[in-house]
Amino acid sequence: MLKHRPVTPKMFRGTLAGSVLLALTLSGCTTAAPASTEPVAGGTLVYASGDAEPTCLDPHVGGNYPQALVSTQYLESLVSKNSDGEIIPWLASKWQESADGLSWDISLRDDVSFTDGTQLDAAAVQANIEHVQDPATASSTGYLALGKVTSTEAVDEFTVRLHLSAPDSSLLDSLSMPWLAIQSATALQRSKDENCQAPVGTGPFVVESWVKQDAVTLVRNDNYTSPPADADHDGVAWLDEIQWRFIPDSASRYAALQAGEVDVIDNAQPDTIDAAEATDSIHELNAPRPGASNRIELNAGKAPFDDQRVREAFIRAADINDGIDSLFFGTAQRSYSALSSIEALGVSAPEYFTTDVKEANKLLDAAGWRERDNEGYRVKDGVRLSLEFPISTNQSIPAEVSLFEQIQATTKEAGFEVKLSPMDLSSWYGALGANQYNLVSAPYTKVGPDVLRILFHSDAITPAPSGYYANHAQVSDPELDALLSEASEVTDANRRAELYRQAQDLVLSGYYLLPLYDQQNHYLVSSAVEGLRAMPTVSTPTFYDVWLNR
Amino acid sequence: MRAARWVVSRIAGGAFVLWAVATLIFFALRMIPGDPAEAILGGPGSQASAEALAQVRRDYGLDQPVIVQYLTAMGRLVTGDLGTSYALKMGVADLIGQQLWNTLSLTVLALVVAWGLALALAVWASRGGGLGTRVGSAMEVVAAAVPHFWLAAILILLFSSTLGWLPPISTGGPLGLILPVVTLAVPLAGFLGQVMRESLIDALEAPFALSARARGETENGVRWRHAIRHAALPAISLSGWAFGSLLSGAVVVETVFARPGLGRTLLNAVTIRDIPVVTGVALVSALAFILVTIATDAIDRIADPRLATS
Amino acid sequence: MSHAQAPVPGLSAASGRVQPRTRNRTNAAELGAAAVLLFLVAAAIFPHLLSSFDPLGINPAKAFSAPSSSHWFGTDESGRDIYSRVIYGTGQSLLIGVTATAIGMGLALVLGVLGGIGSRSVDFAVTRLNEVLFALPGLLLALVFIAIVGPGVVTSTIAVGLSTAPGYARIIRSQIRAVRGSAYVEAATVLGRRPVTILARHVLPNAVAPVFVLATLGVGQAIVWASSLSYLGLGAVPPAAEWGAMLSAGRTYIGTAWWMTVFPGAFIVLTAGAATVLGRSLQARTRQENR
Amino acid sequence: MNSISHPCTRLLDVRNLSVGFGRRGQQQTVVDRVSLHIQPGECLALVGESGSGKSVTARALLGLVGNRGTVSADRVDLDGHSLLGLSAGQWRHIRGRRIGLVLQDALVSLDPLRRIGLEIDDSLRLHTALSPVQRRERVLELLESVGMPEPRLRVEQRSGELSGGLRQRALIASAIALRPPLLIADEPTTALDVTVQAQILQLLAHLKQQGTAVLLISHDLAVVNRIADRVAVMRGGHIVEEGPTDAILNLPTHHYTRALIDAVPAGTPRGQLLVQERHNTPTAVPPPMPTKTGAPLLEAANLAKTFRRPDGSRFTAVDDVSFHVRSGQTLGLVGESGSGKTTVARLVLGLTQPDEGTVTLAGEAWSRQRERERRARRHLVGAIYQDPLSSFDPRHTVGQILRDAVGSGENGRSREAQVARLLDAVGLSSGIRDRRPLHLSGGQRQRVAIARAIAPSPALIICDEPVSALDVSVQAQVLDLLDELQKTLNIGYLFISHDLGVVQHMSDTVAVMQRGRIVETGPAEDVFRKPDHPYTRQLVAAAPRL
Fold it and tell me: A106, A143, A138: which is closest to A446 by C-alpha?
C-alpha cells in the first residue's frame, strides 16, 4: 500500500514554497542512510492525529473513527478481512451460521489472553456484546451493527452462540469493525470512566497512559499472540512505544512531520500530499474508508428537492470535476457511486452525473422555477430557489469546503442560491435534527454494503431520541425499503449482490445524492517508518508490523 | 499594617469577583439551547436512548430545580470541586490541574520575554534620535497589530519549514517553547514598548534627569539608574491586563502549536458545549487574572512608593 | 487605583503620571496612516473601482497561482483573485471592527456613565460588575459568550465588542469622575449651574470625547480579535471575503501557497497599525488641547 | 583647596554667550550675547521673568542645553579653563565636581523613586574613589551640613516622604557633595513657604560664606535681595542691567528694572497702583445688589471641618474659624501651605459643608442649605482660582465661557454686548473671544477668569491665590485690575494668599491662619507692622523684602 514516489523535478511555486521544497530535498538526500531490510525492534513512534481527541478510548462508547484509529493498536476483533475483502479469522478461529440464519456459532482461539491476564473465552465475548447493548454504555455505531442480535449463549468455554431476530448477511462485516472489538470482561466491569481511560484488549500494544488534550501513550504488549492472519510477522510488535498525539491544525501537523517531530500524520491535506511527492523523506499511505462514498445528499423530504426534476437539475448544474482535480491535487478520484470504491458491491453510474447546465435549466423551467430575480436566482411563487447547506467543519476538510464553494458558484448559473453555513458539530447536528437543510454532506463508515440500509431505508428518517438519523436524503421509497431489507437477510451471495445493485440504481437514478469521491483517508509517513499498512476492515493503520529504520 | 490591610482587602475583593464570575457563568450557561444530558452522552450524534438520558439527568442532578443545582455547584466550588467534564468524564479540577502548568509556564515566559523585548525596543527607540525613534515606534505599532495566529503561521513557515531550526509543535522540551512564547510575546511587546518608550522619553526629560546629568552622570547612567524605573511603572500597571491578553492569546497559540493547555481545553469545550469545563477554565483564569493583578499592584506599590502613601 | 488600566496603551499616560508630549506638526507616519485608512474606506465603499476580478468568481484551472502581474496577490484554492478578495473583504472587516467597537463602546457608555455619575452605591455596583467582566480576559469572555449563543459572524462581532466593554467602561467612569472633580465643574457650580446642565455641558463632552479617540485605537484591535475568532472557526465563514476567514482558509495551504496567508494578514496588520497611529496622534492632540 | 585663597580672580568668566534653538535657518535665539562673571564666595543673581532666558543660560554653563540647542561664546572660563568645545567625557568631569546645580522643587528634581541617600551618593560614586562605606559616612556628613535633622533616618527616605524644605536641603546636599566651587541655584526657593524659604536662603548664604560662588537664578527680586552681592537683570535673552544689589534695587537705571521693582507689591500701600500705565476704568457694569442693612456681606462663624485620611485617621483642616467681609472691603487670609486656607475658601463658596459653624451671606443663611436653595443666590459670590486654565472647560472658547457666565436670562444680542463689556472691563481686546484659554498667556487667562467672576455682578469674590502663578509684572497688572474693580463695583474680596507682600498690599483686614486656626486678625497695617502672635512675627520676619 505504501507508495514510494521518486523525487521529480518540479516547478517551484513561488520563492518561499520553493525554499521549503529545496530544504526538504536536501534533507532527504542527506538522511538517505544505508537502508536496513531486516526489521529492527525498538524505538518510539509518534503519531499525530488531526481528528478531535476521543472522549473515550473504548470504541464501544459512542463509536467514531478517531476511536477506531487508536483502538486498532490495542483492541482486536473476532474477525478481519483480507485485501480481497474476504472475511478471515482473528480472535475467532471459525464460525458457522445456522440454516435458518437466526443463530451463529463462533469458535474462539483458546490461546489468547487479555493484557490484564484474563483468558479470552465465550463469557468474555458475551460480556462485550452485553456491554455494547447496554444503554448505559451509550454505544452508537456498535449498537446499530448489533441491531439484530437478541441474545448470546456460551456453547462451551470457547464457543459463543449469537441469536438473531432475523438473518443478518452483514454480521461478519459488522464483527470485523473496531467498534465491536473484544475487551477483557474483567476490565469492562470497572467504571465507565476507568474503562474509557484505558481499555484492556488483546492487541499488540497496551494503553499505558492518557494525558487529556496531549497524548495517549501506548507500549508494546510483550505477551502478544494474536496477529490477524494477514499480518507480516508473528510474535510481539517491533515498536517499544507509540506516542499518539492530537494536532488539530493541519499546517502544524505537516510542519511537524517535515521537522521530524512526528512520524505519521493522518488527515493529510491534498496540497501537502502533493508536496510530499517531491520528497524522499515522506511517503503517502492512501486508504479510502469503506462504507459510503463522500457525497452530498439532497433532502427529498422538503421543498424544493421533493421534486425529482429539481434534484436532477441541481446535480446537472454542479460542475465539480475541475474543482476536485485542482483542490485535491489529483489525490482524489471522482466517484459516481453511493459506496466506497473498496466495496465490492458498489455500483458506479457516471451517466447520472454528467454536467449539463442547459438540461438543468430545462428541468427547472419544467418544474415551475421559470423566473429569475435581479440577482439571477430562480423564483417560483415569490420564493427564491434557495438551498440551505450546513457544513460540519469537523467532518469536511478545507479542500472539501472549497469544493462546496465551487458548487455554490457553478449552480448559481442555473439559478440556485446555495447558502453555505460552516458550523461546529453540535450546531450541525442541531440543524439536521431541525430539518433545516436542503443539502448536506455526512460521512458514514461501515464495513460492507449494508450501509445502504442505514442510509436509505425509510426507517432511518425517524430520529433517535437525540434527534439523530442517518437518512439525510430522506429517501422514502417502499420498493427500496423492501430491497434493502431483503438484501440484509439473504445468504446467497449472488442474490445479495443483485439486490444491492437494484437498490443502488434506485438511489442513484432518483438523484438523491451527488457522489464526490471516496472518504479520503490519507496518511503521510516518514520514510523511516517501514511496514505500515491499513487494516482492510475500516482502513485504520496498524502499527503491529511497523519498525523504524533510522 | 497598611500593607496588610491592603492585601486583605484585595483578597476579599478577589473572592467576591470570583463568586460573581461563577454565578454569572452558571446562569449564563443555563441559557444554552439544548439538553445538557445529551451533551454528556456525546451530543446529538450519539443517538442516546431515552433511558440513558434519564439516567444521566439523575446522575448529574440535572433533574433538580435550578436553584438547588446552583447551591450545590457553589458548595462544591468552595471545596475546590469544579464538577465533572461532560465529554472527558473526568474531574474538571483534575483536568485543569493537568493543563494549568502548561499554560502558566507559557504565559509567564511570554510575559517575561515581552517585557524584555519591550524594554530593549524602548531603550533603543529612545536613544537612536530621530531615525531610531521612528523605526522603533513603527516596529512597536506593527508588532501590536499582528494577530497571533498569523504571526505563528509566518514563524513556522520561516523557522520550521524553511530553516528547520525550531520544531513547529510543542515537544515538551525547551526548544518547542521558543516559537509559542515568541508568538505570544511579540504583540504584547509592541503594546508595552509603546507605553514604555513614551514614559522613558518623558523620564529622560524630567527635572531629576537634569539633576543627575548636572551631577556628572552619563547618559547611560541616567537611562538605567533613573529613567528605566519610571518607564517600567506604567508597564507594570499594565501587566495585569497583559497577562489577561496572554491568556486570550494562549487559546490561539496552543491550538496552532498543538500545545496542551487551558486555552485549547477551553476552545474544545466551547465547540462541544462541555459546560463544566467552560465554567472551570473561566473560573481558573479569572482566579489567575485576579492573583496576577494583585501581584502587579503589589509590585507597583513596591516599585513606586508614592502609590502606597497617597 | 493603579489597576485602573485598560486594553490600549497610552491610557496610563492619561492618568497623569506622564507628562503629555507636545506635538503640532503632522508627521510622515500620520500622513501614511491617514492615506492607508482613506484607501481602505475607498475599498470598502467602491471595491469594484479598485479591483478587476469577481471576488467570488471561481476558476479551478488557475487555482494556487503565485502572485503575478495579472493576480498581484496570487489566487486561492478555487482560483479566485486574492487581491480582489482582500479589497472586497475590506468592507466586511472594517464593519466588523467598527461594529464590535461600537457595541463595546455602547455598553461601556452605559456602565461608565452610570458609575461615573451615579450615587456611591450605584458606582459600587457598576464597578464590581465591571471587575467581574474584566476578570475574564478578552477572548475568554468572547468564547464563553460564543458557547452560549453559538458561533457565527454576528456572534463573534458581538463577542469581541462585549470583551472590550469593561476596559472602555473603566476609562469612561474614571474620566467622568475626573471631570466631575475638575476645577471647571466646580466653577460652573459656583456660577449656580444645575447638575443636569453641568453634566450635559461639561462632564459628558469632556469625559466621552477622549474615549472616542480611544475607539479609533480599538477598531484595529477589534479587527485583529475578530479575525482570531474566524481563524478558530467561530467567526465569519468562507467564501465570504472577510480577512480573518481568508486567513483561516489560507493557513491550511501555508506550506504550498504562502500568499494566501501573507496578504490578507498584511492587510489586517496594516489596518490595525494605521488605526493605532491615527488614534494615538488624535489622542496626543486632544490631550494637548485639553491640558 | 578652594578658591578663597584667590579672592580677586574670576571663578567664572562668560563673554557673549548665545544659545539658539531649532533647526538651522529658522533658529530662535533664546540667550543673546550674555556676559557675566562671578568671584569665589560671591553670589550673582540672574533675575528675570519667565522666558527671559535665565534658566537656559544656567544650563549652557553646564553643557546641558540638549541636542537641539546651539551654544556659542567668545569665552566661557571656569577657574581659568575654557568650557568651550568640551567632549561629553570632559563635561561629566566638570558637572558635579566643578559646578553644582540646584533646581526648583526637589520633589521632581530628585528621583522620586530612589532614596535620597542614593541620589547624594551618586555624585560621590561618579567622581571619587571612596568605598561604599566611606561614601555613606560622607552622605551623612553632607546631610548634617545642610541642616537635615536625623540624617540616618532620612537617607532611607525618598523625596516624596520629605517635607518641601527637607527635600530641598537634600537636593542641595547632592549638588555640593564634591564641594564644587560654583553652585548654580535655579529658583531654589520657589514654591516653598516663606519660613522654609528663609531657611534655604540662609543655607545658601552659609555656603557662600564658606567660599562657594553662587549663581542664583530667580524671578523674585525680594529673594535676591537677601543674599545676592550683585544682580543681573535679564529680559528677552539680554542682560539689560547689572550691578551691586543695593544699587540695582535702589537706583535702577533701566526702565525694565524699575518696572520690576515697582511691581513688587510688598511695601506698596493699599490702593496704590503697582503699574504706571493702565487701561480705562470700567464703568458699564451694573452696581451690585445692596446688602441688608448693617450686616456684613459675609460672615463666617466658628467654622470647623475635619477630613478622613486614607488610613482612616482624621485631621482637622479648619478649626473654629470666624471672620467677616464687608462690601467693597478686602479680607486677606494669609498662611502657609496646609494651614487650611483653601478649605475656608471652599466652605465659603458652599462647595463643602462645615462640620460646625455657619456661613451667612448678606444676612441670610448660606451654609447648611440645600444646593437647590443656594442656587438662586449663587450669583452673589464669584471665585478666582490660582490656576485659571484648569477652571475653564477646555472645549470652550473665551466667548463661550463668558456667555455662559452671563447667564441664560439674557437674549443673544444683549449677551454678546455684555461679553464685550466684560472683556473691556478686564482690559482684553474683543478679538480674544474666539480663542481658547490654552492659547492665552497666564495674565490673559487670569483676566478672563476675573471677567467670568464679575459677570453675574457678584457682591463677593473669593480669590484663592489668584496671582501665585504669575510673573511679577503680570501679577502687578492683575492686582491693579482687582483693585480697580473693587473700587468701581464695590465688591468685597476674600483674598487668600501665602504671599505676605501681596496680602498686605491688597487687604483692609488680615487674618493669619496656622494649622486650621486663625491665630491673629486685625487691620492689615497693624498686623504687619506690629505682629502680636509669635507665628505672625515669624512669618513677617521670614518674608523677603526689597
Answer: A143
Residue type at A143? Answer: Y
Closest CA to A485 of A509, A448, A458: A458
B partners (3+ CB pairs within 8 A) are A, C, D
- Please give the model's pTM, rounded to 2 decimal places: 0.80
> Given D64, D93, D112, which is nearest B306 (Cβ)?
D112
| Separation CA B150–CA A133 (nearest Å) | 47
Element spanning D360, H or E? strand D356-361
Residue A502: pLDDT above 90?
yes
What is d(CA A281, CA D110) in angstroms, rounded to the nearest whole number? 66
CA distances from C266 to B144, B151, C85, C262 (A): 13, 10, 14, 6
Contact A126/A78 with Cβ under 8 angstroms?
no
Each residue's pLDDT tens digit, A58-97: 999 888 888 999 999 999 999 999 888 889 999 999 999 9
Q: Which domains does chain D have, with CATH numbers?
A: 1-98+180-262 (3.40.50.300), 103-179 (no CATH), 298-392+460-542 (3.40.50.300)
- Domain range list for chain A: 15-287+522-548, 294-517
B308 touches chain D (CB under 8 A): no
Amino acid identity for residue D418 in this structure:
Q
- Closest partner CB to A405 (pick from C66, C78, C234): C78
Pick the closest to residue A548 from A75, A204, A35 (CA basis): A35
CB atoms within 10 A of CB A196: 22
Q: What letter represents residue D101's amino acid? A: L
Element of type H or E holding D509:
strand D509-514
What pLDDT does B129 receive? 63
Question: How many angstroms separate the CA atoms of D100 and D184, rounded?
Answer: 6
Distance between CA atoms of A360 and A345, rounded to whole angstroms? 30
B206–chain D Cβ distance below 8 A for any pair: yes
Segments making up each domain of chain C, as ranges: 73-290
Using CA atoms, how far residue A8 sits from A11, A25, A277, A327, in Å, is 10, 10, 8, 21
Rg (CA), chain D: 26
Residue ranges and CATH numbers for the domains of chain B are 2-89 (no CATH), 93-309 (1.10.3720.10)
Comparing CA positions, the residue from B83, B265, B182 lying closest to residue A214 is B265
The Cα D244–Cα D242 span in angstroms is 7
Nearest to A323 among C56, C60, C251 (CB): C60
C127-171 pLDDT per residue, tens: 888 888 888 877 888 888 887 787 778 888 998 998 888 888 888
B16 touches chain D (CB under 8 A): no
**Matching residue, cell 485617621:** D313
Neighbour count for residue A122 (Cβ, 10 Å):
20
- Using left for φ > 0, alpha for ψ between -120 and 50, and beta otherwise, residue D119 falls in alpha
Helices (H), D229-340: 245-250, 255-263
ipTM over 0.90: no
D274-319, pLDDT tens digit by residue?
Answer: 876 545 444 444 444 444 456 788 999 999 999 887 667 788 889 9
Q: Would an 8 Å CB–CB cutoff place B303 in contact with chain D?
A: yes
* Per-residue pLDDT tens over the stretch D237-275: 899 999 999 999 888 899 889 888 888 887 777 878 887
Fold assignment, A15-287+522-548: D-Maltodextrin-Binding Protein; domain 2 (3.40.190)
Class level of CATH domain A294-517: alpha beta
SS3 D520: strand
* Nearest chain C residue to A404, by CA: C239
Q: Which fold has domain C73-290?
A: MetI-like fold (1.10.3720)
